[in-house]
Write a structure and sequence with these properties.
Layout (H helix, E strand, L loop, with lengths): L4 H4 L8 H27 L8 H6 L17 H12 L3 H21 L2 H12 L5 E4 L15 E5 L2 E12 L6 E7 L5 E7 L5 E5 L11 E12 L11 H35 L1 E2 L2 E2 L4 H29 L5 H26 L10 H13 L4 H13 L5
Parallel strand pairs: 1-4
Antiparallel strand pairs: 2-3, 3-7, 4-5, 6-7, 8-9
Helix pairs in contact: 2-4, 4-5, 4-7, 5-6, 5-7, 7-8, 7-9, 7-10, 8-9, 9-10, 9-11
Keywords: FAD, Flavoprotein, Oxidoreductase, Transit peptide
GO molecular function: fatty-acyl-CoA binding; flavin adenine dinucleotide binding; glutaryl-CoA dehydrogenase activity
InterPro entries: Acyl-CoA_Oxase/DH_mid-dom, Acyl-CoA_Oxase/DH_mid-dom_sf, AcylCo_DH-like_C, AcylCo_DH/oxidase_C, AcylCoA_DH/ox_N, AcylCoA_DH/ox_N_sf, AcylCoA_DH/oxidase_NM_dom_sf, Glutaryl-CoA_DH_mitochondrial
C-alpha cells in the first residue's frame, strides 16, 4: 500500500496533545461544515458567514489570547487551526484572521479595559464580527500614505476618509479604524458600524477569494466619543504589530491549501491512466510529486519553528516575513503543479485546485506582497532600508 502524506510526514509527531486536539477539531469542522458548501459559495460569490458563530462556539477566534474568556492556546495550536481552515478555502481562513488576529488583536493589545470588556467576549463567541480598517485605495502596501483623518471637536473625534479591501466590512458590528490625527500621528478607533456617516460596500467583481467578504468603506463626518480611541496605539507600529499576527497565521494557513492540492495530485496520479498505465508510474510525475512534497514539508516545519519562537516570545518580524514569503510562494507552486498533473480536469470546479490557485494570488498580495517581504528580509540582512 502507498504511504499517505501524513504517514510520510506527520505533524502530530511534533506538537502537543492539546495542539493536536485543536487541529482535529478544526479539521472536523472544516471538512463537515465548510467543505460541502464551499464550491457553491465560491461560484455564487457568497461568503458562508453563517458558519462564523460556529467557529466562535469551538473557540477559534482570538484563541491564543488570554483573559475575557479567551482560551490562551498556543500559537502553534492557532496555526494548526488556520491550516485546516485553509485546506478547504483561503477565504474562510481569512475571516479567522480578520476577526481574531487583526480586530480582536488590536483591541486586546491596545484597547482600554472598557473596550476589551465590551467587545472581546462577544467577538470570541462570534456574536459580534469585526473589521480592521487600515488599507486605503491609494496606499496599498504603504499605509503611511493614509488619508483618513481624525479631527478633535470638543468631546468627539470626527473621522473622514475611505478604506479598501477590508475583510468582513459589510457584516461587522464593530471596526478598528486607523486614521491620522491633526498632528499626523496614526491612531486606532473602535467604531460600532451603526454609527452615522459610515457605509460599507461589498467588492463584487473578484475572481479570487469569492467565498470571502471584502469591502470598500467610507467615513463621512463619523463622530465618535473620545474614549473610542485605542489608548495604547500610537503610530504605525501599532497596526503593524497586528499585521504581523496575521502574517504568522498565513505561513501556516497556506500549507493547508498546499496539502489539499498535493493530496489531489497524488490521488489522481494513481487513478488517471495514459498510454495504458497510471501516470503515477511515470518518472517525471514521481519527481514532480516528490518536489511538491519536499516544499510542503519544509514549509510546515518552518511554520512550526516560527510558532515555537512566537510562543517563547522570540519571534522577530523579519522571521515572519521569511515565513510569509516562502510559504505563500511555495504553496502557489504546489497548486500550479497539481493543476498540471490533473490535466484538463484541473481547471474545472470538480476539483478545488484552481480555486486554491486563485485564492492564493490574493494571499500573496495582502499583508505584504512578495516584494515587501523581500525588502524586509533584505533590510535585516544588510541593515539598509530599500523601501
Amino acid at each position: 500500500m502507498p504511504t499517505t502524506i501524513d504517514q510520510l510526514f506527520d505533524v502530530a509527531d511534533y506538537v502537543t496533545e492539546e495542539e493536536r486536539e485543536w487541529q482535529l477539531k478544526a479539521r472536523e469542522f472544516a471538512q463537515t461544515r465548510l467543505a460541502p458548501i464551499i464550491d457553491q459559495a465560491f461560484e455564487e460569490n457568497r461568503s458562508p458567514s453563517e458558519l462564523l458563530p460556529e467557529v466562535g462556539a469551538f473557540g477559534a477566534f482570538g484563541m491564543y489570547m488570554d483573559g475575557y474568556g479567551l482560551p490562551n492556546a498556543s500559537s502553534v495550536a492557532y496555526g494548526l487551526v488556520a491550516m485546516e481552515f485553509e485546506a478547504v478555502d483561503s477565504g474562510f481562513r481569512t475571516a479567522l484572521s480578520v476577526q481574531g488576529s487583526l480586530t480582536m488583536g488590536a483591541i486586546h493589545k491596545f484597547g482600554s479595559e472598557e473596550q476589551k470588556q465590551q467587545w472581546l467576549p462577544a467577538m470570541r463567541r462570534g456574536e459580534a464580527i469585526g473589521f480592521f480598517g487600515l488599507t486605503e485605495p491609494q496606499g496599498g502596501s504603504d499605509p503611511n500614505t493614509m488619508l483618513t483623518t481624525a479631527r478633535r471637536e470638543g468631546e468627539e473625534w470626527v473621522l473622514n476618509g475611505t478604506k479598501r479591501w477590508i475583510g468582513l466590512g459589510t457584516i461587522a458590528a464593530v471596526g478598528v479604524v486607523w486614521a491620522k490625527d491633526e498632528e499626523g500621528v496614526v491612531r486606532g478607533f473602535v467604531m460600532p458600524t451603526d454609527t452615522p456617516g459610515f457605509t460599507a460596500t461589498a467588492i463584487a467583481n473578484k475572481l479570487s477569494m469569492r467565498a470571502s467578504l471584502q469591502a470598500d468603506l467610507e467615513f463621512v463626518d463619523v463622530r465618535l466619543p473620545l474614549n473610542a480611541m485605542l489608548p495604547k496605539a500610537k503610530g504605525l507600529s501599532a497596526p503593524f504589530e497586528c499585521l504581523n499576527e496575521a502574517r504568522y497565521g498565513i505561513a501556516w494557513g497556506v500549507m493547508g491549501a498546499a496539502r489539499s492540492c498535493l493530496e489531489l495530485a497524488v490521488e489522481r496520479s494513481q487513478t488517471r491512466e495514459v498510454f495504458g498505465s497510471p501516470i503515477g508510474g511515470k518518472q517525471i510525475i514521481q519527481a514532480q510529486l516528490a518536489d511538491m512534497f519536499l516544499e510542503y514539508e519544509k514549509g510546515l516545519l518552518l511554520a512550526l519553528h516560527l510558532g515555537r519562537l512566537k510562543d517563547s516570545g522570540n519571534l522577530a518580524f523579519g522571521q515572519i516575513s521569511v515565513g510569509k514569503l516562502n510559504n505563500v510562494r511555495e504553496a502557489i507552486k504546489i497548486a500550479s503543479q497539481a493543476r498540471s498533473i490533473l490535466g484538463g480536469d484541473g481547471i474545472t470546479s470538480d476539483f478545488p485546485v484552481m480555486r486554491h490557485m486563485a485564492n492564493l494570488e490574493s494571499v500573496r498580495t495582502y499583508e505584504g506582497t512578495d516584494e515587501v517581504h523581500q525588502l524586509v528580509i533584505g533590510r535585516e540582512l544588510t541593515g539598509i532600508s530599500a523601501f
